[in-house]
Amino acid sequence: MHRNLVKSALLAGAALTVLAACGTGGKGGGADRATRAAAPAPVKKAVRPAVDGLPGMPPVLDPKDVYAADRPNRLSPVVKDFPSRVYVPNTESDTVSVIDPKTYKVIETLRVGRQPQHVVPSWDMKTLWVNNNRGHTLTPIDPRTGKAGRSVEVHDPYNLYFTPNGKYAVVMASMDRELVFRDPHTMKRIKTEPVTCYGVNHADFSLDGRYFIVSCEFSGELLKVDTEKMKVVAQQKLPFKGAMPQDVKISPDGKRFYIADMMADGMWILDGDTFAKPTFLYTGKGCHGLYVSRDSREMYVSNRGEGTVSVFDFTKNALTKKWRLPDGGSPDMGGVSADGKVLWLSGRYNSEVYAIDTGTGRQLARIKVGGGPHGLAVYPQPGRYSLGHTGIFR
Q1: What is the pTM of this model?
Q2: Which helix (H) or strand (E) holds 16?
Q3: pLDDT tens-digit profile of 212-229?
């Protein structure tokens, strides 16, 4: 009995000790505050990006759609106040025709350098660069005023791209057989990557921005280039005699690259990651330019040799429509309006520009411009930054 009393007393004392330690024995709760103060703060787990992108590249908005930032009229604050214009480089006239898309009229003609090939939005979207190929210069245009500035000396600038992190401009020096990485603002040469193919001209970047695919027009080849190393890492010859690859575009899901071929009369479909032998899809004679719709569902394919535009459905992996220009023509390079309702294309051999309704395929206008119109830019367009060419936005 004595032992039981002692045991009960010990148990009661232990219980009181525990209660005191928990701060339940009084209003102050001093022990409780001390315990809370000593407890470590919860560790926040780092949120890993859905796509491990090129260092410095803005995060991918949607891993299933590289064009997620390009929805109708979703203009960046940088460009939202720029007047809507279509800038047309005329290779044989050494000019840029400026079109008001509301009136379908040429409102100004800018004198630039020799043989302007493309009008290219800069990575930060504040400048349009005119690629004066044989003049060996780039002429800047201020899209806020539409006025041309002082040209910068750059040798053999057939086309121009920008790395997804905005760190470098990449000049496609077609005749020099070089990829030239330059400062994106001053255009000072930083690194030159010689190539063994002939006629580097068009490109597009992978979903993660870590590599890009380049077409070589005159030797019928493709290159794969490591963006960060600024180095060609793979090369292949297209399986068609006389192949002449042109424009390059990646699929919305980032799994395939499409390469227009004006001699094979269709598109090569390439797995960029494996860089294996591509498959082929016939579109029409002189397949040349590739432009993605604002909803990322379709791609407009210009067939320069027959005056048509083929419409490719990404989901169906098939051509669904073909639009024919009513009076013929030579639809070449261009872009889609900010609202997605109009496809603008240069008429390379007809000294004209075509405006086409993307809902019906109906021709809205044919506008006379200078000689040899080529890589026209519709500006501004939706997107966060530009990868170059006539407007590849992400």
Answers
A1: 0.88
A2: helix 2-21
A3: 999 999 999 999 999 999
